[in-house]
Design brief:
single chain; alpha/beta; 264 residues
Length: 264
């Protein structure tokens, strides 16, 4: 299977998905969301694959949605930059007060800060990131698939009983409402008239801080009936001057690792 915006390959029990827009810091434009879905599905249906490594080509993993050329790529562009879709999910990692702090202030986090508050699991130096991701992927690939599925299921169902499913249901509802308030429409009108700066390229990117928020990489919503089909996510930052970050989330049958990597 060939893609326009990403690369897909397998090596035994490990599949690798590489976001492949390095000159644009792997920002998201169509058809990347659909291609990502297709790649994850291909890995999920491959009975040989136990681990999915998700990485970014070049210096960045992913700099978010690309509005540099305007809003014409998205039917409802404000849905990408306004609302509260994932904020409730932070409670499960940060606790009530910290989740509110970061949701209300929107302040950026470096990879080290994200690790310190346990939004991600750990931070490692950039030059060690690929090695660390490979080590963890190989370790998990050595575990029987049935054991991986059982462990994920028992952990994830505990969060289901804590209200995870209702939080995921309410989030998109409130998100839709918040995208249609007078404040939201005023914001979009201003952005439409004044424009949005394009994302920095690898040559112009600032070397001071790498921003991190709760991972929004799950392209489909997790439900109680799909626990054993969703990948776990191991996130890696890309910054050459600060420790890179690694996060492990258990959301399914296979392990999904992600890291910045060499440009292809």
């Amino acid at each position: 299977m060939s893609f326009q915006t990403l690369l897909y390959d397998t090596d035994g029990p490990i599949a690798t998905i590489t976001l492949n827009r390095p000159d644009q810091l792997n920002t998201i434009l169509p058809p990347m969301p659909d291609e990502f879905d297709a790649a994850v599905r291909e890995a999920t249906l491959d009975r040989q694959v136990k681990v999915i490594v998700l990485r970014g080509a070049g210096r960045a993993f992913c700099a978010g949605y690309d509005f540099g050329g305007g809003f014409h790529h998205w039917e409802t562009p404000y849905s990408r930059i306004w609302g509260c879709y994932l904020s409730g999910m932070w409670v499960y990692r940060l606790g009530l007060t910290k989740a509110k702090e970061h949701a209300l202030t929107g302040k950026p986090l470096s990879d080290r800060q994200a690790a310190d508050i346990e939004l991600i699991n750990t931070a490692v130096p950039f030059d060690q990131l690929e090695t660390e991701v490979a080590r963890q992927a190989e370790h998990l690939a050595s575990i029987p698939m049935s054991q991986l599925a059982a462990m994920k299921l028992i952990v994830n169902q505990a969060y289901e009983h804590m209200g995870l499913h209702s939080t995921q249901t309410l989030g998109p509802i409130l998100d839709g409402l918040m995208r249609n308030t007078p404040d939201a429409h005023a914001f979009i009108d201003k952005a439409t008239k004044e424009g949005i700066e394009p994302p920095p390229t690898s040559a112009t990117r600032s070397s001071t801080t790498t921003a991190w928020q709760a991972p929004a990489a799950d392209p489909t919503r997790v439900t109680s009936s799909s626990w054993t089909d969703r990948p776990t996510v191991l996130h890696g930052s890309d910054h050459a001057n600060e420790p890179s970050a690694v996060s492990l989330r258990r959301f399914g049958r296979k392990l999904q690792c992600c890291s910045a990597g060499e440009e292809r």
